[in-house]
Amino acid sequence: MATHYTDGYGDMSDDDRLALFLQLGDIVAGDKGFGFSTRDTVTGRDLYARWHEVLAWWMAHVDAPVPPADNLRVRQIFVADNLEFRLGVAIGAVVAQRWTEESTDPFATPTLDTWKTVSDLPWFAFWAKEQLRWGTLEPFVAFALSQGIARSRDDAANLKAQFIEWIERQPDMAAEGEELIDPRNFLKCSRSRPPAVPAQPAGRIVDADLSGTDGNLGRYAVIPLRKKAVFDGLILLVTSLRRHRNGRAC
Length: 250
Description:
single chain; 2 domains; 2 strands
């Protein structure tokens, strides 16, 4: 099996990881047929000129400058059109072509157990497109988000330590290199975790004035709204209030 520079992606610093994505972006950005594209506006041209900065921000690099709030929407559009779509599709196409070229059966469906051996590619090639989708330099974060194990990038990053602890306990694994980003290891680790016990929401009693009903139902679902440090009960009836013939709400 050939040795690739990205075989060491699991051990790379975030600076080196970002540099790798920037190199891939440089290949695609200026392509005349499938390169990055923006609207011909001042903002669009500015984003194109600073796409390296946009990529660093999207991939959650610690030193990436935070854009002003009024610039987020146009950045998200740029990310969706150029980083997730154009760059992601280009990477996916190259990986798919490699599988077709190396597989003895071009119609065979890749599996986690055959993908790396047949394609002769590092696991980074497996994760790169997914990382662009979720906006992270860390494959474990992309995995945790895609599996619904975590609800945010920060939550997923906090779980990485648990994965490291798990892999260090495995007699046939080492917490380095490809082992750190092998999706099979991610799956084994996640399946070894005890099922989460949903927390019971804490109840609280708040005095409220009823509007539009006499309270005959006894229980209503409400969304509390904080306004000037006072909770107003916004009543959302789970079932529509039906009025009896005598006009009383029920």
